[in-house]
Design brief:
This protein is mainly alpha-helical and 120 residues long. The chain has five helices and three strands, in the order H-E-H-E-H-H-E-H. The longest helix is centred in the C-terminal third of the chain and has 13 residues, at 76-88.
Length: 120
C-alpha cells in the first residue's frame, strides 16, 4: 500500500534488468561463486541499474551469488547475468568455491613408508 500522493512501485520485468539476455556472458559463475567488489572506489556508469548498484554495494564484503540473489529478492538466474556483466566490466571479482582436495602423491607416500621401515 502506498501513501497518498506517492507513486506505487511497479515491478521491473526481468528482461529489462538483463537488457534482454537470458544467459550470462560467462559460464564460470555459479550459485556458490563468491563475489566481491574489485575496486570499491570505482564508480559505476550513470547507466547502471538499481540492481547493479545494489549488487556492487553489497559486495563490499565477500558474498555468494545465492546470498546476493536473496538480498535482492531476485531469481538466481537473473542475478547471475547481472553479476557476469559486472565481472566483465571490472566492477566485481568472482571467486570460485574451494577446489576439491587432490589426493596425496603416491611416490612421496612410498618414500615415507620406506623410510619408516628403515628406522626399525
Amino acid at each position: 500500500m502506498t501513501a497518498p500522493g506517492e507513486q506505487p512501485e511497479r515491478p521491473v520485468r526481468s528482461y529489462v534488468i538483463t537488457r534482454g539476455r537470458a544467459r550470462p556472458s560467462r559460464n564460470t559463475i555459479n550459485v556458490d561463486t563468491l563475489l566481491v567488489a574489485a575496486d570499491p572506489g570505482r564508480p559505476l556508469p550513470v547507466t547502471a541499474s538499481r540492481e547493479e548498484t545494489a549488487l556492487v554495494r553489497m559486495c563490499a564484503r565477500l558474498l555468494s551469488l545465492a546470498e546476493a540473489a536473496a538480498h535482492l529478492a531476485l531469481p538466481v538466474s537473473l542475478v547471475k547475468v547481472v553479476a557476469s556483466d559486472l565481472v566483465d566490466s571490472g566492477h566485481l571479482a568472482a571467486r570460485s568455491g574451494i577446489p576439491e582436495a587432490t589426493g596425496p602423491d603416491t611416490q612421496l607416500l612410498q618414500e615415507v613408508l620406506d623410510g619408516l621401515r628403515r628406522l626399525r
